[in-house]
Write a structure and sequence with these properties.
The chain is an alpha/beta fold and 718 residues long. Helices cover 36% and strands 18% of the residues. The strands form 5 sheets. A 7-stranded mixed sheet has the order 6-7-4-3-2-5-8. It has a 7-stranded parallel sheet with strand order 12-13-11-14-15-10-16, sandwiched between helices. Strands 17-22-21-18-20-19 form a 6-stranded parallel sheet, sandwiched between helices.
Length: 718
Amino acid sequence: MSDFFENDIKYLKGVGEARAKTLAKEIGVANFRDLLYYFPFRHIDRSRFFSISELHGEDLPALQIKGQFISFSTEGEGVRKRLKGIFTDGRKMIETVWFNNINYFSSQYRPGVEYVIFGAPKIFNHVYSISHPEVELYNPEKPPTGFRGVYTLTETMRKKGFSVLTLRRLIAEVIKMPGFQQIKETLPAEIVDRYHLMPLKEALVNMHFPASHAEMQKAVERFKFEELYYIELNILRFSMERGAKIRGYAFSRIGEKFNGFYNHHLPFALTGAQKRVLKEIWADMKTGRQMNRLLQGDVGSGKTMVAFLTSLMALDNGFQAAIMAPTEILASQHFAVIKEWGDKCGINVALLTGSTRQSERRHIHEDLENGSLNILIGTHALLEDRVKFKNLGVVVIDEQHRFGVAQRAKMWNKGETAPHVLVMTATPIPRTLAMTVYGDLDVSVIDELPPGRTPVTTLVRWDNGRVEVDNLIFNQLRLGRQIYIVYPLIKENEKLDLKSLEMGYQRTCDTFVGVPVCYVHGKMRPEEKEAQMEKFVKGEARIMVSTTVIEVGVNVPNATVMVIENAERFGLSQLHQLRGRVGRGADRSYCVLMGKQTSGADTKKRLSIMAETTDGFLISEADMKMRGPGDMEGTMQSGMPFSLRVANLAKDGQILNRAREAAMAVLAGTQPLLSEGAAPSPNEKIESPIRLNDYEIYMTRKELRLRFAKDVDWSLIS
Ligand code: ADP
Ligand code: MG
């Protein structure tokens, strides 16, 4: 009976061809499995009745009210015809409305009889009204107990007479069938036991018809666990396979170059976090497996020094190092710093970007191939075919989101031993997300800033604070400092009432007369953009007006003010990135979040979090909790990380940990992969790909596929 799940929904009592079509089309329910796995998004306590006087505000959830109908009347003509019922709980009244099957409903319910009505009240013409409520007789001898599920239904379904009640009846019907008892467990029995999970059948019943709150929670937990378990299994398996296929160099010593610099030329004492991270990196590079590590460190946490010392580890083993940055400006900034460090201990460092002159380029190519060049810093130019290393041992990629896996893979040839890879990012990714989404990377975190930083003073100001903000800018300009002003959009958009960059540029020039202003936005050509950036970096322009394109990595220590217009439009993580552009020098710095006066309480709370903390990880956790993981700017472009049905990465970190542990045990060979006869999962279909940075992720429960989204040959690495 293993195909009980596969039974076409149309054979279920009360369904038939027409309804089956609707179910399939509207909510993707085509067979028994789909129906059983069509979980409620919420559970309602059946013993809890609301009184109408308790209802406040808009956006109310579906709820139960007990009472009687006072009267029914039909209103409107033709398609607008509707049945209106006035319902009272004995004190106040609420409207109920039906738009179809009017005759049926008007004959169905009688005034003077006690009912329980169920639905989400909405305000129409200043009164609460429930359209197409579910109505049940209330029996005082047997008052309702337990919990009931609330399901998502589409408008079309409601029009065709489907209610939550219908759906529940169908589900109950399937559960009653003898075949249901034959359903096989989909998790290995050992795992069900070890993690005290509710068995499948019981969990399915309790998802839909829980007898108690505790049982409902056990059921939900089981499905969350199962979902995360299979995701982890896939990701871990993927990374193991990759690890097995790609050989890495086994570095054996830390020698003269590293120790020489470390003991005699280190310009500052490393923070504890920097030291720890370096140990983690060294431990990777010793193994003979290719290092593939993501280094997360807040802006200003000192990742550049880690990149340099990592390079020295390669040098000491007779290898070269490459450091890639996403823009010429960033590459030049890295070069300036690292060249100075390298010069102190006789290390050859060169810079290669799109604008490197031909003659110099030739030199670099030569020196690379004969091995006299030790560290090459640059942009995408490093990926050109002509760039050939003698023996590249480690690649450091700064600001990870601009480079994809395929580009990483381009640094070495197929079949060769791969250089170690260290990817550095300032985007703080919450641990749960990093574990799932970047499961193929090991993660190190620099969670400590170098001592002696003056934290950036963050101010939240509304439109009426404009003069104060202008004065702050004037004062800082007078002190010789530079200013960033960031806008959310390029062009005026009346509908959203956003201040545009163009308007802002004009206003800035008009307000700060005679002060040189430059501007940058995403629609500019790269050369134009770099030229404008350059002006600001060199101090020729004192104010930079821009969109969020300046987010990544630029270091102008003389900039002390970051004004963010329409701050309510940005995600917290993004605000944090922007704020990181100031406070890089010794002077006191300011970040001003200009918000809209009329913003809601949520927005005000979000902005106040920014004023309260400068900890990027706290901010990104808060961001994820408030916005949901699918919404994290700077981490993902769009969409949920995976189509999770029940689990929530923001909240289910603990379950994720256990699921990951279980998956690891399976892959270590101490557990069977699946129980015998396990049914295929409800997630079997290939979901539409999820975009994540440069990847597209396709996932089914049986496999995970990553594809580089930009027409680059992904097979290079897989
Ligand atoms: P990020 O992690 O944002 O790339 P950087 O590497 O640019 O940060 O470092 C920011 C600044 O902090 C640089 O001026 C760097 O020299 C300095 N710095 C880095 N590590 C330390 C340290 N351990 N002690 C003091 N200053 C440090
Ligand atoms: Mg940096």
